[in-house]
């Protein structure tokens, strides 16, 4: 079997697998707007998909389009973001919504340059929206896609970090020429990486393209290897402290908007770190610091 035949066989097998195994997520299969797709992609960055679904559903009920989100208060947006993590994404998403409302009359633009010109929208999100929302032929490059394609076609691990030129060349080379097939391809490769061809424990015995996988044929060399930079611990980090402060603000009783200084000091024993984190939250626009030492969500 030559390379062209192998590539086509992989595409057919993955498309058939996608038809019967794709997770039934609420933003898939044409059940939401392009704006809904964009929201799902922003929420899914560095967050498990299972955690995203309830937040996305609540968010879209409250703000079904860009104009609705643009008019929300900052406090409402931060509260609705909940425990998705990296709350600055919520503020950037609202900035994006305002740009869509003001520049494009509440209609998400359909070109790569226009999408990447929106606040907080980079290469991956723009490509995903063009593919999944608009059906355009464009390579979508994320960690799961890079891992699957590197294993199947190159026989080696993708070590994370920025995409290497060889990986980008591969993603574009194997992308089907037909637009509709390219959408299915992007979705199915990403889904395979999320559910079967996982980083540390790939389920090779149920993989639909195992017979074509160069990585499996080579004995899975370097399975699970990552770039040398160690993964940052979470416990005790500024990120944890910032999250604790925001959770306390979101959990205030109805009618109460200010977290008093005495309550703040009870949240974390290291008050130097605590104050640094509060200052950084204020600098990021996630809280307002009050003269008496209390804090509140932005009004």
From TrEMBL:
Domain called HhH-GPD: residue spans: 43-195
Known EC number: 3.2.2.31
GO molecular function, a single term: oxidized purine DNA binding
Reactions listed under catalytic activity: Hydrolyzes free adenine bases from 7,8-dihydro-8-oxoguanine:adenine mismatched double-stranded DNA, leaving an apurinic site
SMART domains noted in UniProt: ENDO3c, FES
A single GO BP: mismatch repair
The protein's required cofactors: [4Fe-4S] cluster
Keyword terms: 4Fe-4S, DNA damage, DNA repair, Glycosidase, Hydrolase, Iron, Iron-sulfur, Metal-binding
Pfam families, A to Z: EndIII_4Fe-2S, HHH, HhH-GPD
Domain of life: Bacteria
PANTHER family hit by this protein: ADENINE DNA GLYCOSYLASE
Family under the similarity heading: Belongs to the Nth/MutY family.
Protein name stated in the entry: Adenine DNA glycosylase
């Amino acid at each position: 079997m030559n390379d062209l035949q192998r590539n086509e066989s992989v595409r057919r097998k993955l498309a058939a697998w996608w038809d019967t195994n794709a997770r039934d997520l609420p933003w898939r299969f044409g059940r939401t707007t392009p704006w809904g797709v964009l929201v799902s992609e922003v929420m899914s960055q560095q967050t498990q998909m299972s955690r995203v679904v309830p937040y996305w559903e609540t968010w879209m009920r409250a703000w079904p389009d860009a104009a609705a989100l643009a008019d929300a208060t900052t406090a409402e947006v931060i509260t609705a973001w909940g425990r998705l993590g990296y709350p600055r994404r919520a503020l950037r998403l609202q900035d994006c919504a305002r740009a869509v409302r003001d520049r494009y009359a509440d209609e998400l633009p359909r070109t790569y340059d226009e999408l990447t010109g929106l606040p907080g929208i980079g290469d991956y999100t723009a490509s995903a929206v063009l593919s999944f929302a608009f059906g355009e032929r464009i390579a979508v490059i994320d960690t799961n896609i890079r891992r699957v394609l590197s294993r199947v076609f190159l026989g080696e691990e993708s070590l994370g970090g920025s995409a290497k030129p060889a990986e980008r060349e591969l993603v574009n080379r194997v992308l089907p020429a037909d637009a509709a097939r390219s959408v299915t391809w992007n979705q199915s490769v990403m889904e395979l990486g999320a559910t079967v061809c996982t980083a540390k424990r790939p389920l090779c015995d149920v993989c639909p393209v195992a017979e074509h996988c160069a990585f499996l044929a080579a004995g899975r060399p370097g399975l699970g290897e990552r770039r040398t930079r160690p993964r940052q611990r979470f416990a005790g980090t500024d990120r944890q402290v910032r999250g604790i402060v925001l959770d306390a603000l979101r959990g205030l009783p109805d009618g109460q908007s200010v977290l008093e200084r005495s309550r703040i000091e009870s949240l974390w024993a290291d008050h130097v770190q605590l104050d640094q984190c509060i200052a950084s939250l204020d600098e990021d626009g996630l809280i307002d610091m009050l003269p008496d030492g209390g804090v509140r969500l932005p009004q």
